[in-house]
Structure formats: C-alpha cells, structure tokens
Design goal:
With about 350 residues, the protein is an alpha/beta fold. The protein has 3 domains: about 10-55, lambda repressor-like DNA-binding domains (434 Repressor (Amino-terminal Domain), Orthogonal Bundle), CATH 1.10.260.40; about 70-175 and about 310-335, Response regulator (Rossmann fold, 3-Layer(aba) Sandwich), CATH 3.40.50; about 175-305, Rossmann fold, CATH 3.40.50.2300. Helices cover about 40% and strands about 15% of the residues. Strands 7-6-8-9-10-11 form a 6-stranded mixed beta sheet, with helices on both faces. The N and C termini lie far apart (about 70 Å).
Amino acid sequence: MGEPKRRPTSVDVARLAGVAQSTVSYVINNRTDGNVRVSDETRQRVMKAVAELGYYPSAAGRNLRAQRTHTVALIMFNYTLENLIAEPFLSGVMSGLVEYLSEQEYYLLILPVPKGHDRSIEPFLHSNRADGVVISDPALSADTMAMLKAVPIPVVFVDGQICDDPLDFPNVNGRGHVGSRLMTEYLLAKGHTRIAHIRGSLATPSGHSRQAGYLQVMQERGLYNPDLVVEGDWFKAGGYKATEQLLNRPEPPSAIYAANDQMAIGAIEAAHAWGLRVPEDIAIAGYDDIPVAADVAPPLTTVRFPFRQIGRQAGELVFNLATDTKFRPASLPPVPVEIVERASV
C-alpha cells in the first residue's frame, strides 16, 4: 500500500501560480483590507492553481486567525432517544437553525446530554469549539444555570420562559400561554364549559406556560376544576392514559385540550376505544400542528406553533451575538400563534 497523497498547501498554490503566499491568502479569503492590490489576471491565476491542485483552505487555520469556529452548538439537556427522534419541536427548531446558519456559512453541532450529566458539557463550553450555544426548552437546575452564566460565548434559549418571567439569557419565546388562551377561549366559544386539560410535564417551561394560558381563562370565567387537569408525558401513550382518567370522572369533560398534538392524538384514540364519537360526544384539541395532525381521524383542531421560524430566530440571535460585539438583543417580534380549525372540535 502506497503512502497517502499529501494534501496541497497554500505554498503549493503560490508556487504554481507564481505569486507570493500572502497573495494566495488574499485571493482565497477575498480580502480587501490593507495596501495589497490583486489584479484580475493574478486572481485568475491563483484560482486556476487552486482548481488544478484540488486545494482546500484549512478551516482550522482560518478559524484560528478569525478567532471563530463558524459553529453553533444546539445542546439538549435531559436527552432521551425519544426527544431526538419523536419530538417534532426539536426537529422543527433544528431545521430552522440549520436553514439560517447555513445561509451564514455556519454549521450546527448537536450535543445531547443525558439526564444527570449536565456538568459533562462544561469542558466543551470553555474549549472555543463553538461560537455560541442554543438550548431548547430547558428545565435546568440552579447549578446548571450557574455553569451557563460562566460560559465565555453567547447562550440563547429557545422557548425558555415560564410564562412571562424572563431568564438571565436571550430567549426566543414560544408564547405557549398565548396559544393556550386562544384555544381555551375557542372551546368556550363552541359552547363547552367542562374543558379538561392534559398538561405536559411541569418540569419544562412549555408545560408551565401552556397550562398557564388554560388556567387563566378558566379561572377568569369561574370554570376552573382541578379534577379536569391531568398530567401527560408529551407522548401519545400519555395522552391515552390521561384521557382514560378523565373519562372515569363522575362528571367527565365535554372537551379536552391537550398541551401537544401527540397527547391529543392519544386522547382521540382513547375516546374511540370508549365508544365515543369525536367531536359529537367529546371535542378534542391539541397544540403544535405537527404534520400528522391533519391526517388523524378526525383531523385535529390545534394551535399552530411555528417551529421553523423559532429556530431561524434563535439562529439569527446567536449569530449576531457571536459576530458583532456591539449587538444587543432587542425585543424580538412575537412568534405568531393561531388556531387551525379542523374536524375534532
């Protein structure tokens, strides 16, 4: 077996093009600073040599000179396999992040952190291997928050607010309480008064915020009943189990609002298993508007949550913080939420 082929360097390009190595650097990096003037003919010779040699600039060297990695890390604390594969929120946010960052010629590094191992990420955060960090829907301990405050790079949260209480970091807020108010008021307008809520885990900010909107409306109308609030686990099986509990109540609800579509789909399946028609016997609504929501039977009425837009906003925020020392996070425009009317209500 022969020795591996040596990777061409900028010295090789300079020799073939008949120019100084500094000229190659100016051409490759498209620099216009300083007193160096590169003619079009010289630029063409350099680029021809680059093509002939198959030369690629060293990203490590360029990053070292610019003191940037051109990378943003998306950190998922309390990671489980289901979070990454089955959670539409994460996949939607990731798609928006990738979309925006790729337009800036940046990369997204995904770092799942298993539950109980928050401190394992600390060496990475101080290693200069990313220009910024995005954290999705965090439910973090005081110790982890203190660790993040000491990080020398920008940290941006996605949907990281419990209602309107600000965190110590820039945040792209999903406004879950606003969407929940809209849905609860929508169900009331349809004539329902015994409206149950299958909430998400209160260990997450979105679990708190989506429950808060429901509670605000029901308490304002004098209709709140704690027996009609049951916790789910964000997945279809949790929605199914929670619905069984609600249907076993002495006075079951006439409508169920689940904190996400997966639990709402589980609720529909449970209602069907009990011989109930949706929406004739019980109305069921969700939150998120995941792709499958339109395909269940009946199609699910839900709150549309623009995952991709939130990912793009988070990407724009962390990019600006990482690349502009004078940038200060202003109030971002609120993420729009709206009711999507289908046949389950």
